[in-house]
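Predict the 3D structure for this chain.
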Amino acid sequence: MKVRVCDLAALGAEGKTVVELEGEGVALFRRGDEVLAIGNECPHQAGSLGDGWLEGDIVVCPLHGWEFDLRSGVCMTIPGERVPRWIATVEGDAVYLEAAE
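Done. Predicted structure below.
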């Protein structure tokens, strides 16, 4: 089931924001016409991935530099670590999320 989480404008000039869905923080990142969504909390020390910086389709945690693939949620730094991901869609000027798995 798709859930409306924000207006597209909420991603601002930097192309990112954090929303809450069912009590969990979700970091949204705009990549061209696409929006990608992963869990906001880094599994290392709970850094906000929404405050991280992008290197292509990789977000870097601002606390200790752990890197996460925005398309899969897989940690590129520590094998076996990952964050949840969602399917994000844009309809009109609204962003919707639904479970990826």
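The radius of gyration is 12 Å.
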